[in-house]
UniProtKB/TrEMBL annotation:
GO terms for cellular component: alpha DNA polymerase:primase complex. Residues 7-72 form the DNA polymerase alpha subunit B N-terminal domain. Residues 333-535 form the DNA polymerase alpha/delta/epsilon subunit B domain. It is found in: Nucleus. One of its GO terms (molecular function) is DNA binding. InterPro entries: DNA_pol_a/d/e_bsu, DNA_pol_alpha_B_N_sf, DNA_pol_alpha_bsu, OB_DPOA2, Pol_alpha_B_N. This is DNA polymerase alpha subunit B. Its main location: nucleus. The lineage of its organism: Eukaryota, Metazoa, Ecdysozoa, Arthropoda, Hexapoda. Belongs to the DNA polymerase alpha subunit B family.
Amino acid sequence: MATHELVTEQFEFLGIEVLNDVLSKCVSLCEEYNVDAETFIEQWMAFSLTHLNGAPPSIENLNLLERREFSKRTLSKSSTNETSHLSTGATLPIYGASLSAQPENEVLTNYMTPTSKRIKVENEQIHQNEICPVTYSPTGSSAKYTSRTNQGSVVHSYGPDQLLQDIDKCDNLNLIQLNVTQVPNDDGDLYNKAMFGFELLHEKAMVFDNHIRYISQCIMKKNGMTESVSVSYKTQSDVYVSGRIECDADARLNAKSAVLQGTWENSLSNSVSVDMNNLKQYSLFPGQVVVMRGSNPRGDTFVATEVYYDGARPVPDKKADMMNTLNGNLSMVVAAGPYTTSNSLAYEPLKDFVAYINRHRPHIVIMTGPFLDADHSKVKDNSMAETFKSFFEKLMDSLGEISTSSPNTKIYIVSSQKDAFHVNIYPTPPYSMRKQPANIVFLPDPCTLNINGVVVTATSTDALMHISQEEISFGTGGDKLSRLASHVLYQQCAYPIWPPPPSLRVDAPLWAAHAQLPCTPHLLILPSNFRYFVKEMNGCVVVNPEHLTKGTGGGTFARLLITNQDTNSIAAQIVRI
């Protein structure tokens, strides 16, 4: 129970002097709305800093606090009972029989007093901005984002014309029965919770050795090779050697600094320099597992004449399980964070994205983090007046409300190690919250889903950009983005680079267990800072939706239509938010 002494003590703790009549008002509000003194003062400080620029408490300010923060609680509790009571034709005793004779809409209009109308308008305004965090200074909008004129425009299309004509009519598609499961790793484990930061050097070495041996065996089997020798084996005739590309310099990989580390079984984990002058073409990066053909006359330099790095697994048959196949067209929307502009925490792009989902009602929505980027300027300057975790839960609750307008839409949230409220480790475990909405499923990064036989792999880490920053290539030609994306499929790994950049903390045992692809998916989602694209490679459609925001302006997202046909089964469009 709040008393004058408790309220005074809380204000004095914050260095605020309050008049007696203001103290009496505070105590009455605590008693009326069943709030203890400490909670009341916390809510007042957040409200004052957000809406009143830190003004001291007064009778007028407390009345404003009551209307905007406390009254909406009682209204939300009583509105359901009042509305249901009126809709059944029952009468309100205070109005007598004359009220029951009026039509229902007139009853609701007459029952709305001027005060309740004002509260209703204020509550509607607050509801529209409730995605915004509580901050110590007013949250403004991004002028560049609000002044954009190209929202909703389609900037790229992929797939058959017939499917593209239906892709914008997702809300009219027939309801289909979906069976969505997360695909476990080869050991049958799902990445839900894991201990990290307990790497032992010998275990880490074993992890990489097993990875080199397995991927090299896949490459050799796919190219019809039978055996390989040690990387330091002296020979003047052509032989095959397998290993992992590394850089023998404290700089970016180049043609003179490339070395090949062999396995313990074949080479005792020794490394050898690689002479690439005789290679007609190559595309290499640190951490890539390759098989090379060539000779090693002196034992210290392998003269390569050909390099192989395609160890991709086959694409699974969508109709392998006849009891688990699509019986209609599957509509999907994909967006990648961040979800607010770099100069604001108003989350206007996210609000527009939610509005799009409410209008089109897709079956599946995949959203990759970050949701609260740790590198955001407003996060770095500590301007938020609530915890990062509580604000994330507020965001998820707002996404949970989509079930009201689109009850058949499932939202799959892929975690990100860049989020301020989450663990900074890769692979990243899924998010968690105290009360998770029923229409939201949290997934790790990376993850693989099986949607009625259609395999979808998604990640929130920009592997394409990281590969591009370390890759060296010669004579490859063609499309660079396709080449970068193909490395993910060839290496059977969502993040095949090693060592990673300092900004990405990779746990080697978790990487080996949960960053590998269980198969070549039908759909691979690789968000990146590179320009958006949709490309088909070896039976896999790779989608880069880019990001929902780009700096202070709007970005793009992807919408897809998937069928159970064997060929030309996926249509996709990139749309501006």
